[in-house]
Write a structure and sequence with these properties.
The protein has 314 residues and is an alpha/beta fold. It is built from seven helices and eight strands, in the order αββββββββαααααα. The longest helix is centred in the middle third of the chain and has 34 residues.
């Protein structure tokens, strides 16, 4: 059977329309033959979200955005989503609008909640949420910093105003004078430093000798310290304690008139007798000095001894 040109044209148009329909649905991410569900969510603002954007769960694509329009009688945005029909999460699941990247636009992520016997169906509206993107996070971090920077700049301006008010002509002159005096002080310190350097250079040999003597003295002191460490001070102290004890015993005996020394010190009669003996001895020595012939004489023929008579005291 031979087809006419009109039938061929009609078939070609029908085939083209069918191909366009399938292609259009394919580009939107929907399949004509698969069973799908249409669900909704409402947002206050959807900047960056476009039709055909991805709908996913944990990064796995489960559908596409099919329509974005105002909610009737409101300024809120109604987003229509076509998702797989085999999913069994409940209508309490949250649809979160998030930023896919710096230049990747936005998409919707479903945070599923599974409830026994409850599953989404076409026409359900999911609660919405918005996850801050990178740009919003940066803005949130920059805003406090901007406020602090503004406050700092204001404080700096006030500080400069105060400094300008304080630094009048007289104050500037005083400051110049102070800086000049400080410069002279630094120069004097430099001169003193140079003199000290010259003094140290000229006396380097003497200083070296002095330090050597100090080192030798330190070594000798160290040896003396070592020797003192080796001395048995405990034994010496014990010996001195023993001597002190014996000396105390002797002094006790003297104080109690025991022994010869005690009697000599404490007996008045012995003192009197000793004093009288000393007087007799002194008298004898005086007589011997004044009359030596009474005691020492030489005679060839013999001579009668002269009796001794005690001289009377003047």
């Amino acid at each position: 059977m031979k087809l006419s040109r009109e039938i061929k044209t009609a078939l070609l148009v029908i085939f083209g329309l069918g191909f366009f329909y399938f292609g259009f649905n394919f580009l939107k991410g929907s399949s004509v033959f698969s069973k799908q569900k249409v669900i909704y969510s409402v947002y206050d603002e959807v900047e960056g979200l476009s039709i055909g954007a991805d709908v996913n769960i944990n990064g796995l694509s489960i559908g596409k955005i099919t329509k974005i329009d105002f909610l009737p009688g409101s300024t809120q945005i109604l987003v229509s989503m076509r998702v797989r029909g085999d999913l069994a999460f409940s209508s309490a699941s949250e649809a979160i609008l998030y930023e896919t990247g710096l230049i990747g636009g936005k998409a919707i992520m479903i945070q599923p909640i599974f409830e026994n016997g409850k599953s989404i169906k076409t026409g359900d509206t999911l609660p919405s949420g918005v996850q801050p993107g990178f740009t919003e996070l940066v803005n949130q971090q920059i805003a406090p910093l901007q406020q602090k920077l503004t406050s700092t700049l204001t404080s700096v301006d006030e500080l400069f105003d105060g400094v300008s008010n304080v630094l009048n002509n007289q104050t500037q002159e005083n400051l110049k004078t102070t800086l000049s005096e400080l410069t002279r002080t630094v120069e004097n310190a430099n001169n003193i430093t140079r003199k000290l350097n010259r003094l140290l250079d000229s006396n380097a040999t003497a200083l070296d000798t002095t330090f050597k003597h100090l080192a030798s003295t330190s070594a000798n002191l160290s040896q003396i310290s070592d020797s003192l460490v080796e001395v048995d001070f405990k034994a010496i102290l014990a010996q001195y304690n023993k001597i002190a004890t014996n000396l105390n015993q002797v002094l006790d005996q003297v104080n109690t008139s025991q022994g010869t020394a005690g009697k000599l010190i404490n007996d008045p009669a012995l003192y009197t007798q000793l004093n009288a003996t000393l007087e007799e001895l002194e008298s004898l020595l005086n007589d011997l000095k004044n009359n030596p012939k009474r005691y020492v004489h030489f005679s060839l023929f013999g001579k009668k001894n002269t009796p001794y008579t005690k001289e009377k005291d003047d």
